[in-house]
Amino acid sequence: MEKFTTHTGVGVPLRRSNVDTDQIIPAVYLKRVTRTGFEDALFAAWRGDPEFVLNQPAYANGSVLVAGPDFGTGSSREHAVWALKDYGFKAVVSSRFADIFRGNSGKQGLLAAVVAPEDIELIWKVLETRPGTEVTVDLEARTVTCDDVVARFEVDDYTRWRLMEGLDDIGLTLQHADEISAYEATRASWRPRTLPAKHLPPVEVAAARPVG
Amino acid sequence: MAGTLAEKVWDAHVVRRGSNGAPDLLYIDLHLVHEVTSPQAFEGLRLTDRTVRRPDLTIATEDHNTPTVDIDKPIADLTSRTQIQTLRTNAAEFGIRLHSLGDADQGIVHVVGPQLGLTMPGLTVVCGDSHTSTHGAFGALAFGIGTSEVEHVLATQTLPLNPFKTMAITVDGTLRPGTTAKDIILAVIARIGTGGGQGYVLEYRGEAIRALSMEARMTICNMSIEAGARAGMIAPDETTFEYLKGRPHAPEGAAWDEAVAYWSTLKSDDDAVFDAEVVLDAADLEPFVTWGTNPGQGLPLSARVPVPAEIADEAERATAERALEYMALTPGMPLRDIAVDTVFIGSCTNGRIEDLRAVADVVKGKHKAESLRVLVVPGSARVRLQAEAEGLDRIFLDFGAEWRNAGCSMCLGMNPDQLAPGERSASTSNRNFEGRQGKGGRTHLVSPLVAAATAIRGTLSSVADLADDGADAPAPDLLPA
Ligand code: SF4
């Protein structure tokens, strides 16, 4: 995971509340077997509408999404976070996130910054009157800056620390690789191993067919 | 300090204690993999240039998407074929043992682990699949995980976790003939509700549980997740050791003795404190069936379909109304009058050899009701071979049932085995959600014995009903005492 200290990029005002994960990425895209390449799936149902914010050239390269309250509710699909990241978003700003979405974001290095609703309103106004305005998200200072609006945001200490160190869960765990090895050295010999594979005598399995 | 079974297994796997609210880091003994929830995890490894830490503690099988007929032909559905092909590529690239379609050890991941002797007491077992709780029947701490966690286990063989709460479910007494483990667990879920187990590990104990075979215990633990629980567990005993001995991966010689000595310590201490307790008497149980669209909406077979107007709680009434509308049932009608179109016998809940034997016992020498189709899908290729060696396949075919290859099949209809819209099934699987077995399909969860009797009579039935019909009496030990 890349270290996140501060990020500056075009802000995208998404004036909607209760954007659930089905809207972020519809279920049909969950059949894919890849972890990347979900940018086309982001907000798929809305992308057909020329008025939709991401279809306006000034916002098309946005990387900071400024959304209404209760962002990321509904299904726990991690694909919602993958789609936002693949599109190019580095941070989502909202006054309230669904817990699972926020958890998934933290795991994947997408910053979910909680900002007071009044401040969101001020940022929206700037972004709407001057499309293409950049927003700076400073994780160190916990501030979102958009033109003359400077708003504080909340993020829990543990997630902040992980993002700033660029540590995903796996990276964090691997810092304790020595302890894992030490534990492994103490495991009893009866504990099973899948390799080398042991079988009953192998047999050929023929295709069964339905009657009639 | 006194501890519960779950706490003992947990404590034996802590690599590193979390402090200040950080989670414990838990070692994982056995990681089961299937084609649906693993592709993105492997892709994640590739993107971050990581490897699988312990391929020798990992095993994969193809189950959810596999067809149950014509397994020698390419898989027709493209998405299914891609998922399976992806698993094959990943297994080859990362050096993971895979049991593919056509292999004698292919089958539903939760049937394959125990039958190979890989599932043992005192292990931590995970899989990107909620019914991983099945393996708790051996006294293992076994639970389902999400795709990010699958990747985490592949890369580190550990998981950061906060401890679960514990709930004791004590089932006293003796089951009456014609009632089974499936009836116990359906009754438990109806009692505590589909959310009642949330955050808990359920430990099943008591006389009725001790009396169950390993396969029946797996049926119970399998459905713990339907009560919302993280896991279900049963303390290992002689039945467990007996089942394991001689299995391909079971320890041998001195290692076996060492293992049994340790396994024998795996039980909740007498003065252990559970966060919650539930007590049931097995002697009160009748065959149980579901009438609604979640596994908690179940009743004894002799009951009637609930009348929503009589339900006081408003939210519950609305839920019941919606369920009955979807299920197209008349409030107040006897459950026994419900006619089904399909009987499905299989899944990780009831697709093991004992289940097939129980069904064969009831249907032997009979013919199914003309109005319905009967699908018998063994949980694994090994179960199928065993059944064929015992001649069960002939019994099913003579009965008019379809005898299929192993897989998840109509449990979730990811392969072509689905209900048509409006079709109704009696199913030995574990979920009766809307559309679970096919869009618009209606599912009644039942035990294998009820499935067999239903296949004969065409309507939801118990084996006792067969005797009342005066038809050839079923085996005497199935009759009510
Ligand atoms: S049989 Fe059903 S419940 Fe079991 S693993 Fe397969 S799909 Fe899941």
Automatic annotation (TrEMBL), chain A:
Organism the protein comes from: Cellulomonas fimi
Subunit structure, as described in the record: Heterodimer of LeuC and LeuD.
One GO term (biological process): L-leucine biosynthetic process
Any one GO molecular function term: 3-isopropylmalate dehydratase activity
CDD domains per record: IPMI_Swivel
The family this protein is said to belong to: Belongs to the LeuD family. LeuD type 1 subfamily.
Known pathway: Amino-acid biosynthesis; L-leucine biosynthesis; L-leucine from 3-methyl-2-oxobutanoate: step 2/4
Lineage, top ranks: Bacteria, Bacillati, Actinomycetota, Actinomycetes, Micrococcales
Residue intervals of the Aconitase A/isopropylmalate dehydratase small subunit swivel domain: 1-112
GO CC field: 3-isopropylmalate dehydratase complex
EC number(s) per entry: 4.2.1.33
Protein name per its UniProtKB record: 3-isopropylmalate dehydratase small subunit
TrEMBL record, chain B:
Pathway stated in the Swiss-Prot or TrEMBL entry: Amino-acid biosynthesis; L-leucine biosynthesis; L-leucine from 3-methyl-2-oxobutanoate: step 2/4
Any one GO molecular function term: 3-isopropylmalate dehydratase activity
PROSITE patterns referenced in this protein's UniProt entry, alphabetically: ACONITASE_1, ACONITASE_2
The EC number(s) this enzyme carries: 4.2.1.33
Region Disordered, residue ranges: 419-442
Listed Pfam families: Aconitase
Database matches in InterPro entries: 3-IsopropMal_deHydase_lsu (IPR004430), Acnase/IPM_dHydase_lsu_aba_1/3 (IPR015931), Acoase/IPM_deHydtase_lsu_aba (IPR001030), Aconitase_4Fe-4S_BS (IPR018136), Aconitase_4Fe-4S_dom (IPR036008), IPM_dehydratase_rel_enz (IPR050067), IPMI_cat (IPR033941)
Cofactor note: Binds 1 [4Fe-4S] cluster per subunit.
CDD domains assigned: IPMI
Cofactor: [4Fe-4S] cluster
Domain Aconitase/3-isopropylmalate dehydratase large subunit alpha/beta/alpha: 7-458
One Gene Ontology term from the biological process aspect of the record: L-leucine biosynthetic process
Keyword Iron belongs to the record: yes
Keyword check for Metal-binding: yes
Quaternary structure and interacting proteins, as annotated: Heterodimer of LeuC and LeuD.
Role: Catalyzes the isomerization between 2-isopropylmalate and 3-isopropylmalate, via the formation of 2-isopropylmaleate.
Family assignment from sequence similarity: Belongs to the aconitase/IPM isomerase family. LeuC type 1 subfamily.
Name used for this protein in its record: 3-isopropylmalate dehydratase large subunit
Organism: Cellulomonas fimi
